[in-house]
Design goal:
Length: 191
């Protein structure tokens, strides 16, 4: 098949985006995350046109490590494929968070459309937002998943969003007068 490319088969799910809300000690965790995001200082420029910390927050802050453990537990429940050992026994695919960072959106700030490939999964955890805060948008969702009408996901405080990292996403201009604070990160296999 030299010179010929073939499209990957589509997912057969309505949406590849998973949501889970933290319930245990969410308020305490969020307070620590806000403090650590403020403490870390501004990172380099990226697709995010807002305050962004450095990429390795989990290496420095316990709050990020705790959040990443919850995200990894969620990802392990949603394997993209199965794996077996040489004898045919089911085997868990080891996962790790390689990057995690904080973002603070102030009025007028946004993030350009981008992906997180070559990561396996990407996540975004909402530390602080109101019902009117700008949602995260997956601009090609209707193209990839056959007519899905709603490609915007409202992001509520305490909610983790997890999706395959190659899916394009963005955040339009934040219009609220208060900050929208999130933590984002990428999960890779750990072989």
């Amino acid at each position: 098949m030299s010179g010929h490319t073939r499209e990957w088969d589509r997912f057969n799910e309505k949406s590849p985006i998973r949501k889970e809300t933290l319930t245990s000690n969410m308020e305490v965790l969020n307070a620590h995350l806000i403090n650590d995001i403020e403490d870390a200082g501004q990172g380099a420029l990226s697709a995010a046109k807002c305050y962004r910390t450095h990429w390795k927050m989990h290496e420095q802050y316990e709050s990020f490590r705790l959040l990443n453990n919850a995200v990894l537990d969620m990802a392990k429940q949603l394997p993209l494929a199965s794996r077996t050992d040489e004898k045919g026994n089911p085997e868990e695919v080891p996962l790790k968070v390689l990057e995690s960072w904080g973002l603070v959106y102030r009025k007028g700030e946004s993030t350009d459309a981008h992906t997180h490939w070559p990561a396996l999964w990407s996540y975004c955890y909402c530390v602080s937002a109101c019902e009117d805060c700008v949602p995260i948008t997956f601009p090609h969702m209707d193209t990839y998943w056959g007519g899905l009408n709603d490609n915007e996901v409202s992001h509520k405080t305490g909610q983790i969003l997890l999706w395959p990292a190659w899916i394009t996403h963005q955040v339009y201009e934040h219009e609220c007068d208060h900050d929208r604070i999130v933590v984002a990160g990428n999960i890779y296999t750990d072989f």
